[in-house]
Amino acid sequence: MMLRWLIPLLLVALTGCGSITRSVRLDTGRGSPTVFTPRPSSNPVKLDGNKFEAAVEAMARFVRPPTRPQEAARRLFEVEPRSGSYLYEPRSRRITPLGSGEHLDGELPSADVELTRAYLRWCDRTARPGDCLRLLVEGPTVTGDGRYALSMALAQGVVLEEMMDAFKDMADPEAMITTVLWTWTTYMILLAVPEPFSKGIAAVMTATLIAYVGVDTFWNLIVGFKRLVDAADRATTFDELRAEGERYGKVMGRNAARAFAMLATAAIGSSAAGLAKQVPMLPGAAQAAVQAESQMGFRFAAIGEVETVAVSAEAVTISLAPGAVAMAASGNAGTTFPSGSKSWGSFSGFKKAMGPAGKGQEWHHIVEQTPGNVNRFGPQAVHNTENILRLDKGVHTRVSSFFSSIQRDITGSATLTVRQWLSTRSYATQREFGLLAIERVTKGFW
Fold first, then answer.
1. Closest CA to 255 of 50, 41, 42, 47
2. Residues 405, 276: one domain?
3. CB of 329 closer than 8 Å to CB of 298
4. Where would you tag: which of 89, 285, 365, 382 has the fewest CB atoms within 10 A of its CB?
5. Does one domain contain both 71 and 205?
6. β-strands 197-199, 306-311: how paired?
């Protein structure tokens, strides 16, 4: 557990840098890191409640909740067990009082005993009697990480209720809830250490969350959780934990909480590569793909190539695998293609050389051939064999209609069409979004 005296010093150091514009450093191990200054995050990804519930429900179908969720979360994020835990005898039930005749061991601190009893009464009131969050599996009282998990549950009660609705048809929805909660809390504990550092699946999760909520919001959530840890360690009553949880819930907000919960669900039992494969199909992924460029300076498709993420008061350092260097986006990067590709100065020149698309098919530009795109990127970048492909005529019509429509849950705007919203982005981001649009329209998601 973090030394209690250290946390206030960290908070002074972290919050004292509030006026600093935090940069993102992209490190591929080849030469000096590329320094990128995020644009202000005015449009964090919005997650609709119904789509959020549908997403976590779909992912939960492939998850078998572990009997020891805290231990499973530690293995997932490679976190060492914490010292000072008491042995717990679940068969004796002496340390999990469900009735007036049962008692906790008298040698335990009275404040911990009373807080634990208050927690069990809270479980009863929420119609989940017993150790409803599995906080007593590794110790007889709610201490240490269990306090943080309880505070997080109290902070995000509404989002946990949404997940309970999503898991209601499972054999053991409570077990799934506790697995998500412990995954979420253990990940946050990784961020509560000095100079937070994440690797593997935690690094992919961190980069994805930044794409969803923005660098500044992510930073505020780290600082807020450090305060929660400090307050939870000092709390002596359930009401004090509740107050701290509710405070942090206001800092996080429902939208960011949904993003965290969704990513925690996707991470369960997965690997870094497995999580990266799921990310493009999650709700809000299209907008996150655009946010990745403005917040981190690289394409969302490179999420799977993120090896580590380190956070300091001045910068977020993202280390990408060496092979991802060509995917890093800056300005209009991404407009060059393999030597075997062919390009033309106009679409008519392309069609004259390549001929008709074929029966029932039409030629489709992944990065659209709008006048703005042609002027910005050049006609050869738009009219070439890497950017134009054959699409079924019906799919082509639906994709074009989608780009002409207003999709507020994607763009965050009630007035801009998808095409207008995307028009100011880099070539690489437009291409990535265009490929995602084809996939989702074809599968009927959009």
1. 47
2. no
3. yes
4. 89
5. yes
6. antiparallel
314 & 368 share domain: no
Instruction: Note the pLDDT tens digit of each residue in 194-239.
Output: 778 889 999 999 999 999 998 888 988 999 999 999 999 888 899 9
Cα angle 1, 228, 249; round to 5: 140
- Ramachandran quadrant class, 253 (left: phi over 0; alpha: psi -120 to 50; beta: rest): left
Which among 124, 393, 443 is positioned nearest to 281, based on CA atoms? 443
Q: Tally the C-alpha atoms within 13 A of residue 395's C-alpha that lie toward its C-beta.
A: 22
Q: Which of 86-90, 136-140, 262-266 has the lowest mean pLDDT?
A: 86-90
Segment 240-287, tens digit of pLDDT: 999 999 999 998 888 899 999 999 999 998 999 999 989 988 888 888
pTM here is 0.71
Q: Give the residue numbers spanning the domain of 284.
A: 6-82+144-323
Give the closest residue to 148 by CA, choosing from 183, 172, 98, 196.
Answer: 183
**Is residue 121 assigned to a domain?**
no
CB pairs under 8 A, 24+ apart, for 11-15?
11/223, 11/226, 11/227, 11/230, 13/313, 14/222, 14/223, 14/226, 14/313, 15/223
Same domain (yes/no): 175, 287 = yes
pLDDT in the model for residue 102: 41
